[in-house]
Amino acid sequence: MTTEPTLGVILAGGLARRMGGGDKPMRQIGGRTILDHVVERFSPQCDALVLNANGDPGRFAAFDLPVVADTVADNPGPLAGVLAALDWAAENRPEIKWVVSVAGDCPFLPRDLVARLHEARMRENAALAVAASGGRTHPVIGLWKVALRSDLRHALVDEDMRKIDRWTARYPLATVEWPAVPVDPFFNANTVEDLSEAEGLAKIAG
Ligand SMILES: Nc1nc2c(ncn2[C@@H]2O[C@H](COP(=O)(O)OP(=O)(O)OP(=O)(O)O)[C@@H](O)[C@H]2O)c(=O)[nH]1
C-alpha cells in the first residue's frame, strides 16, 4: 500500500563484472530467477513497474514489463537508470511524482519498502529517501522525486556525476533503517559465491 502514486524501477543496467558478465537478475536462487524474487516482493508495492536494462529488451519478455534503457551512454552507473525511470514517469505517467529504485540483484527486498520510504520523507520533509541496514546505507535503493529529473540529467551529463551519495547530499535526505537479521533485506548477489550464500538465505527469508 503506497501513500502516493509511485513508479518502481528495477535497476538491471550494470555489467556484472564480478560475476563474469551477463544479467545478474537472470541468475537463479531457489529455482527461480532473482528477478522473479524482486518482482514478487516489489510489484505489489508500486502503482507501475519498469525494468531498467540496456541491450536487447527481448531477453526479459517473459516478465511483461516495460524495459527502459539508459539515455546516458557508456554505463555511467546506477544514476543513469534512476534518470531513465524519472523520464519514463514524466513522459508516460504524468500523475506519478515519485519513483522508488531497487537493484535487480537483491532477492530479499522488504515488503514495506515503498511505504516506509514515503513515511520517512514526509515525516522529515525530505526530497529523497534512502534505505539502510546493519548501519550501512544502500544508495541504489531509494525514493526519488520526478521533479528532480532535470537536475539529475545536468549532474550526470555536465558534471560527470557518478556517485549517488554525492548527488543526494545536495538535497534533504531521509534514511530508513531495516533490521539485518535474520536476513539482510538488501543482501545483493555480486559474485558466484554470493549466489550459493543466497540459496541458504532464501530458506529463512520472510
Ligand atoms: N542503468 C544502469 N544501472 C547500473 C549501471 N551500473 C550499475 N547499475 C545497477 O546498479 C546496481 C548496483 O550495481 P553494481 O552491483 O555496483 O554494479 P554491476 O555493474 O551490476 O556489477 P559489477 O560490474 O560486478 O560491479 C545494479 O542494480 C546494477 O544493475 C549503469 O551503468 N546503468
UniProtKB/TrEMBL annotation:
The keyword Lipid biosynthesis is annotated on this UniProt entry: no
Residue sites binding GTP per the record: 11-13, 24, 52, 70, 105
Subcellular location: Cytoplasm
Catalytic activity: Mo-molybdopterin + GTP + H(+) = Mo-molybdopterin guanine dinucleotide + diphosphate
Family annotation (CDD domains): MobA (cd02503)
Source organism, top-level taxon: Bacteria
Alphabetical GO biological process terms: bis(molybdopterin guanine dinucleotide)molybdenum biosynthetic process
Major location category of this protein: cytoplasm
SUPFAM superfamilies with a match to the protein in the record: Nucleotide-diphospho-sugar transferases
GO cellular component, one term: cytoplasm
InterPro entries on file: MobA-like_NTP_Trfase, Molybde_CF_guanTrfase, Nucleotide-diphossugar_trans
Pfam families referenced in this protein's UniProt entry, alphabetically: NTP_transf_3
Protein keywords: Cytoplasm, GTP-binding, Magnesium, Metal-binding, Molybdenum cofactor biosynthesis, Nucleotide-binding, Nucleotidyltransferase, Transferase
Binding site for Mg(2+): 105
Co-factor requirement: Mg(2+)
A single MF term (Gene Ontology): molybdenum cofactor guanylyltransferase activity
Top EC class of this enzyme: transferase
EC annotation from Swiss-Prot or TrEMBL: 2.7.7.77
Reported function: Transfers a GMP moiety from GTP to Mo-molybdopterin (Mo-MPT) cofactor (Moco or molybdenum cofactor) to form Mo-molybdopterin guanine dinucleotide (Mo-MGD) cofactor.
Domain commentary: The N-terminal domain determines nucleotide recognition and specific binding, while the C-terminal domain determines the specific binding to the target protein.
Assembly and binders: Monomer.
Family from the record: Belongs to the MobA family.
HAMAP family xrefs: MobA (MF_00316)
NCBIfam families: molyb_mobA
Protein name as annotated: Molybdenum cofactor guanylyltransferase
Species in which this protein is naturally found: Manganibacter manganicus
Taxonomic classification: Bacteria, Pseudomonadati, Pseudomonadota, Alphaproteobacteria, Hyphomicrobiales
